[in-house]
Write a structure and sequence with these properties.
The protein has a four-stranded antiparallel β-sheet, covered by helices on one side. It is an alpha+beta fold. It has twelve helices and 21 strands. Strand 4 and strand 5 form a beta hairpin. The longest helix is centred in the middle third of the chain and has 44 residues. Among the domains are: 138 residues, DNA methylase specificity domains (Adenine-n6-DNA-methyltransferase TaqI, Chain A, domain 2); 148 residues, Adenine-n6-DNA-methyltransferase TaqI, Chain A, domain 2. The chain is 34% helix and 18% strand.
Length: 428
Amino acid sequence: MASRGDIDFIKVQPTLYHNWIKIGFEEALKKAPKYVKHKTKGLALQGKYPVVDQGDTLIAGYIDDEKSIYKGDTPVIIFGDHTRHIKYIDFTFAVGADGTKILKPSSILNEKFYYYYLKSLKIPDLGYSRHFKILKEVQVPLPPRPEQDRIVAKVDILMAQVSTMQKSLERIPQLLKDFRQQVLTQAVTGKLTEEWREGKELEKWNLVFLKDITNKIGSGSTPKGGSKNYKKTGIPLVRSMNIHFNGIKSDGLAFLDKKQAEKLKNVEIHKNDILLNITGASIGRVCIAEDYIVGGRVNQHVNIIRLNEGISPKYVNMYLSSSQIQNYIFNENYGVTRQALTKTQTQNLQINLPQKAEQLEIVQRVDFLLATANEINKKYKILKNKIDSLPQAILHKAFKGELVEQLPTDGDAKDLLREIEELRKEKI
């Protein structure tokens, strides 16, 4: 039995129209027939009959044995006793193992109306404990059947519209990613400033090795004792997990005391240093050291790149972030088989370098274009959050009786009480 504290978290219908009633959760259900339960392990990726369990995905796998499929009527609702996932199943299927509950609404309910009501509930997370006990305390709103049907039809339409909007939005992050990479490509190939160069007496771009424009390229190390000896505060130790293309991420940042930091003094981070990941899955990620990290140290997975005077750190960081270098890092020489850049390999990375004036012009133009992309991304996230919240808002209105008009011809849900009584007699 669920505690009253559990139930308090569930948003149950607060007010009902005059011709709605409420019935107990179990009163709204038929008894499901016996069925075979199939463990997820060993299921085929393809087959005749899909297996539905309490997992994230609609279908867990497939079987071919007709004798093992669910023999009851569909549609039914699957409730994940451990996961709280709710699925509407209107096709022939087999039942998954542990935690898969089959709910078959009685004839007084539109099955999808019942499904949508369950989806509207905010069921508290009890971890891997069972949650079905909480549902047993729920009261189900019951409008007249014609109104149920209209509510379902309206919700179906609105949910389909929300789904269409969500699918359209899904393209935006990749479009922005492609746009950013195109901007960098045009920047480091000179296409971004072609018009700007017209009429100016400028030297040609020079293809140089990174070692020729730097006075330091080197990585650090992990203090003796590893993570056990990191401090909660102190001098930052930047690791590969902190380096991202859009800057330093402070999550997971480690700290050293003065004695530990002194042993890594040769890899102290200076203002405008470029930090490059040189090992592991994040190889190639690069950014400029932010002010709050200046004075920190790097470990063996991160290279400090310190440029000579007269070279724009932003331009070189931009070049290292572009597809020219990123593709080179991930080619057959440094790909999944090695996932490492040596100091020599880093020194020999080639940079196409314009004069300082053009470097600054490129940086200015790229900053503007990327700032525009970032603004679009912010608006995208706001819009996505609003659209993602629409399903619950739709269901909230549906079960307040505000989604469709009530009609005199609907009758009164109290008339359904007689049907409920008849159903109870059948169970006795």
